[in-house]
Amino acid sequence: xxxxxLLLFMLAGLALAWLTDRSYRRPLPxxxxxxxxxxxxxxxxxxxxxxxxxxxxxxxxxxxxxxxxSSLLAAEHGRVDRxxxxxxxxxxxxxxxxxxxxxxxxxxxxxxMAGIALLASWLAAAQGIPIALWPSTHTWLLLAVLATLxxxxxxxxxxxxxxxxxxxxxxxxxxxxxQAPVLLVYxxxxxxxLLGAS
Length: 198
Prior knowledge:
Elements lengths: L1 H23 L5 H27 L12 H6 L4 H15 L10 H24 L9 H22 L5 H14 L2 H18 L1
């Protein structure tokens, strides 16, 4: 399940990068440009992250014997909307925190982790077991290292591109793709907690 999810994640990220590049190469009114930057592109990243989380379930948690995703989402009205809202609001609010605006590498993994945590909480409730969504210090350090490596690798790979618009697009695409290890580590951490509590 993980490999098909990764493939879809990469293809969706590539499609988003292509649309972003096309939009930035077209002359647009200032209001439209702001709407694109503040709403449409963040929403696109949310949908790409959501696609990965949904397609990787339940392998994302390393726990095959769990309720199906459809039954999990249908257990309570509005769960799909809530999942999208959590990811989107996290993407809007996190950049407003001082020091994070230039660090999209912090925002993206925290967005994905918020979605995974919400899914894990529903999974724990369905199984009637408690779960701690806050990882250990060791796991936090590992996640921080992976996020930092993602930022560094994305900028190094984008630096070889001469065109400034394409360079930015490549950096954002690589940064999006490189969130997968962070999300997999966090998901498996929660999966171990679920298995340990069951």
